[in-house]
Amino acid sequence: MAMTALTGFSMMSLLSLGYLTWDMMGPNQVENETNHTFVESSPVPQPPHIIFIMTDDQGFNDIGYHSSDIRTPALDKLAADGVKLENYYIQPICTPSRSQLITGRYQIHTGLQHSIIRPRQPNCLPFDQVTLPQRLQELGYSTHMVGKWHLGFYKKECLPTRRGFDTYFGSLTGSVNYYTYDSCDGPGRCGFDLHEGESVAWGQRGKYSTHLYTQRVRKILATHDPQSQPLFIYLSFQAVHTPLQSPREYIYPYRGMENVARRKYAAMVSAVDEAVRNITYALRKYGYYQNSVIIFSTDNGGQPLSGGSNWPLRGRKGTYWEGGVRGLGFVHSPLLRKKRRVSKALVHITDWYPTLVGLAGGNESLTEGVDGHDVWEAISGGKESPRLEILHNIDPLYNHARSGSLEKGYGIWNTAVQASIRAGDWKLLTGDPGYGDWTPPPVLPGFPAGWWNLERHTEPKKSVWLFNISGDPYERQDLSEQRPDVVKELLARLVYYNRTAVPVRYPSEDLRADPQLNGGAWVPWVGDEEEERWDTVYQKKNNWKKKLKMSKSRSFFRRLNTRMMSNRI
């Protein structure tokens, strides 16, 4: 539509209606409200530069401002001067969190509701999803991604540069060596995984990934003109995911930690803290800071087996207890209206999509159909969150709880199915939510080793849990028997969501993906002309019967060992 024909509308109305975007207006162009003609006047504010920083497997207790034994002065300072998100939810594992950030959709609406995308699976983020960086490109942003992708790469069309990023530098799989960038998907299935755009970056081997990614972000900031075009950078650190690797200088300050895994883990967090400090310095140095929004988020809960800690929350990475899904998060920006505070507003990782599109000048039509909400007013202005409910997930393929049934779900829902939902103050879990203990930060030199078997596990004959999560964030008092009325209401909500779910995308592994067949690297192996097939599902081996026999034979010795170790403690 020609701009001269748009009479009777204000400039902001045209922006909100989608007829005009920030990049379409001249640097000094505004509307004269009297005669509805465009004249030169004061500069139009440019949309903010957006820096989204995600860490991998960083636990709820693994940051300084949560009274951790890990020191994070840079992160603490940014959070203290911004808004800490203390009612913020993510997903329990890598791929789902990243898919929800990029699409703004629950994973039941993208087919990624089960597990992660494995390196040899012909699977990736569905092509019918318009991604967050694609929307920001439409709104005039220069978009860049640095770090871990983990959203599939079997076709070139799956790659970050085909899904909305102008540039990409990082690893495509879920876990790589921090120095060699080797990634393995089972014995003998290893390959190099560091990419520059759509090419393999062989020459970068030997450089610590946290440092390498930070250097790339600083280079982007140094070479871009902050006044000419708004910038979106998605920095997805590999840290602090296993393997536990860090330069020695970061380990030395934690030499007093007796637990080796915790010591290495703490060093890796400190390296990330330094990286964020250097990036913030670069934002100031190159003129971005005053018009920038920095968002910090974890992708899932920490893994105590690898040095992480979610204390005092229940559970760990891979579970739907709070320790798996309640994330670290904060927003730092000079543009915040109410700074230096803690927000209890309910925020979910899908909310970043509409929130950032809104900050970029987009209207609601650009976020139609997403499951997220625009929460900027809740974060910046301290208003009520528009979000009242979170579907954590419904996973029909996860091992069904043998104690669950439709009968135990009051004829509404089969409680054998792994699912979780929060509505208001209430949180419901069904099926097998995963390991559900409260694990303090590891301090014993040999932890976990044999000590792990001494920990308590969830009741094997239970398949429904209900918590008032606002009053009981540590999930210690199950109210499912006292409040069957609430249980029934939330089960009905699961039924509602399940009716909107798309089929699970979890195809069998493809032997053609083997790096040895592709020059020694993890790269796309399927031609874009090949048709997708989702009629086969990758089957995981289930050895629960064998495990049951073994557990019975060990039960006596475990009880004996428990008594002996309890006496020592």
TrEMBL record:
Similarity remark: Belongs to the sulfatase family.
Protein name: Sulfatase N-terminal domain-containing protein
Signal sequence, renumbered to the chain: 1-18
Sulfatase N-terminal domain sequence ranges: 48-361
Keywords carried by this UniProt record: Calcium, Glycoprotein, Hydrolase, Metal-binding, Signal
Pfam families noted in UniProt: Sulfatase
InterPro entries referenced in this protein's UniProt entry, alphabetically: Alkaline_phosphatase_core_sf, ARSB, Sulfatase_CS, Sulfatase_N
